[in-house]
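Entry: Probable potassium transport system protein Kup
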Amino acid sequence: MRANSTTTATIGAVVGALGVVFGDIGTSPIYTIQTVFNPDDPHPVPISTDNVYGVVSLIFWSVMIIVTFTYVTLVLRADNHGEGGIMALITMLGRGVERRTVAALSLLGIFGAALFFGDSMITPAISVLSAVEGVKVIQPQFDSWVVPITAVIIIALFSVQRHGTSAVGRFFGPVMIAWFTAIGACGALGIADHPEILKALSPVYAIKFMVGHFHFAFFSLAAIVLAVTGAEALYADMGHFGRRAITSGWLLLVLPGCTLSYLGQGALVLGDPKTASAPFFLLIPDWARLPMVLLATAATVIASQAVITGAFSVASQAAQLGYLPRLRIAHTSESTMGQIYVPWINGLLLVSVLTLVFTFRSSAALAFAFGMAVTGTITITTTLFLYIAHTRWKTPLWLIVVGGGVLLTVDLMFLAANLTKLVHGAWLPLLIALVAYTVMTTWQRGREIVTRTREEAEGPLREFVDSLAAHEHPVTRVAGTAIFLNRGKHSAPLALRANVEHNHVLHEHVVVLAIVTLPVPRVPESERNEVDALGYAKDGIIHVTAQFGYMETPKVREALSLLEPSETEGRIDLDDASYFLSKLELVRGSAPTMAAWRKRLFIATSYATADAAEYFGLPSESTVIMGSRIEV
């Protein structure tokens, strides 16, 4: 029975991964070959028998090298306590000993995360547009309806985010299984008509295409990279499904389905070069085109859902690690960890995606922009992985140089090809990434300045407690428990100092609570709290450090409920406790801490900060907020 249960659980994880992880990469066959042979491309690839073989072969081997080898075989092994994604890589870098190198790579990783935000904006636009464009193949007069229909679908998609994906998640896997089965079957039909296309599986044709026609083959890489869009999702969602489930789903269904589709489309173009305008939909029998358009739309919505969820996760992790302000986060599933909704990010993505749809108006126009975000993220992930493999796993340097050099050469070739599309739309994801990177690094720097200034105003915690014991601050002790939230262990909370110095009141039992985010995804409950009596536990004052992982939302009451009575002498009453928060008003000062424009950006970004009481799960009726002004 145990073996059967394990098998069932494994199958369930694979189905779940198919529904969430592979949506983006699984819908790439809709537009990849069409984009390669797009006559409006600044560097079009002429349609000929040799070029079709070369393009299909180059697509297949690009997928094998970047997705199957780099991500599935190598990068998925670099997990941070089971979690993946570029933010997990950044936290793993923090354990290195070469500080300058780690700092530089961390900044590179942050730029990779910023590129992912650009990917999160472009993916829903290009995916849904490409699927809806299938109606033009059925009825060309529906061309004018493509953009409005796409906009309606996108608005509906973002409108339901607040309800979470748990209610519909169980349907995602079967839909994607149907999708990969359908595109594989259609591809097999195309191969049956022109079986000679199977020769494209040989890497010889990819090499001959690149070497013999480099003057346009190099530029074609900017479109061929579309075949590996979504590779980062395999790594980012590893924590939800596990490496085994993702690897199984990729090798058993996704890779075969996509490969058959690419080969079938290549066979179709060999038979009739005119079909290069829409090879994916023209490969489908007439009677099945409308159902396939509907299935493609469902698949692209799922692909969009996956990348939107990924953006929520990256934003949440970035906030936990101090690169973004504390954002309001809603957990949308009581049973599934990691399903979250971030309203501020959701609104930003909705406006951005609609802007892209109405500006570019076609998937072909957006394709030039799409590749830049993908290649940038892949190159940065490979670089960070190679550093971790050498420093943590002690992989020999010669192997890193030789093997890693080959992988990075492939990545950099794709990146260089996309840089040639800067004036044609590739500037867009770079601009989005630059803005996001500037916001995140400015917030990190401003947060350091505010923390330092705040600690100077607060003064040492132990000295403050000593002054209470020495009666330097005559206070009235009142019954009850007061919990003062603080940034760390060494300074006195501003709210505590103000309460004593201005109100001359102190509760009978006082807890100074610091919330610490560790560079791990989650912290076991047994390791949640660290208690320090500060030498004055008999006077009812203790310090508690509550530790959370960067994937968790800190809940104060839940953390304090884990304290043993022996640690607090049984004197903390959470049901009747009062919570004190220090609220800071940030103002631009004259000190040369940052450039004036960065100070304004930091203060503007602070307005997105979520309400602290709500974020930490504090009861509003027993929470007291005391304000202070700090110059940046």
